[in-house]
Design goal:
By secondary structure, the protein is mainly α. The radius of gyration is 16 Å and the shape is globular.
Length: 113
């Protein structure tokens, strides 16, 4: 597996990070901390939870070639869980997810597929 290192200074949360993202992270971190979950949310536990939630996204498509309309609310809920755990991980490592995706896209632009 080839790892394409992304410059940490280019993908960190800083003044250029969208205020809406910073507000949302503050909200979900406050929610987590109010319940005393901070100690259990180590990076490895967050990664495990992210994988579990991603599997639940896949479950929405189980036995179907496309998403049944009745599953759209369930898909939205599971995607929200995936994003929440992704944001928790980004917060742990001071990473801006929008900058991460943009940086990775720039790497992909130069790859031979």
């Amino acid at each position: 597996m080839t790892v394409h290192p992304l410059d940490p200074t280019q993908v960190a949360v800083d003044d250029a990070t969208a205020p809406a993202y910073r507000d949302l992270v503050n909200q979900i971190v406050a929610f987590r901390n109010a319940r005393g979950w901070d100690a259990s949310q180590s990076p490895v536990n967050l990664a495990k939870s992210l994988s579990i939630e991603a599997s639940e996204v896949l479950q929405c498509f189980q036995w179907a070639e496309s998403l049944p309309e009745s599953e759209e609310p369930h898909l939205a809920e599971e995607l929200a869980d995936v994003l929440t755990y992704t944001f928790y991980l980004c917060d742990r490592f001071n990473l801006d997810p929008l900058k991460l995706v943009a940086a990775k896209n720039a790497v992909n632009d130069h790859r031979a597929w």
